[in-house]
Amino acid sequence: MPLRTKRWDDDVEPDDGLRLLITRYRPRGLPKWAENWHDWWPELAPSKELHAGAYGKGGLKISWPIYVRRFYAEMKSPDAQARLAELRARLAKGETITLLCSSACVRESRCHRSLLRAILEEGAIDN
After folding, report:
1. Cα–Cα dist 1/117, whole Å
2. What torsion do the CA atoms of 6, 9, 14, 17 make, to the nearest 10 degrees?
3. Which residue ranges of the chain lie beneath pLDDT 70?
4. How many other CB atoms sit within 10 Å of the CB of residue 14?
5. What are the domain boundaries of the chain?
6. What pTM was estimated for this model as a whole?
7. Cα–chain-centroid distance for residue 61?
8. Best CA proximity match to 124, nearest among 53, 71, 51, 47
């Protein structure tokens, strides 16, 4: 399955395919002409509350296991399910998709993009 993950400010590569920004908020101060993604899908980002609990001022307020559980629960919403179904269909057709997160998100293993990858590749949300 041609699914990739990056930060939005990582270099754009020809094999990135469809570049989807999956953050709750658009990057601040970035002019529209400098955006290097094709579309923005905030439905696949943590909610404002979950984002604040994990990345808000003062650092991490919730543990990673709690974050994972809450994020998976949020991905069961109708809006998220519709987006996930669209991604699954596009991936099944062989389309390359790159999920883009925040430039500040340096640890992919502690980022919702890794959780989305698990949902799409392994059906993690069903577990």
Report:
1. 10
2. 50
3. 1, 56-60, 103-108, 124-127
4. 5
5. 3-122
6. 0.86
7. 20
8. 71
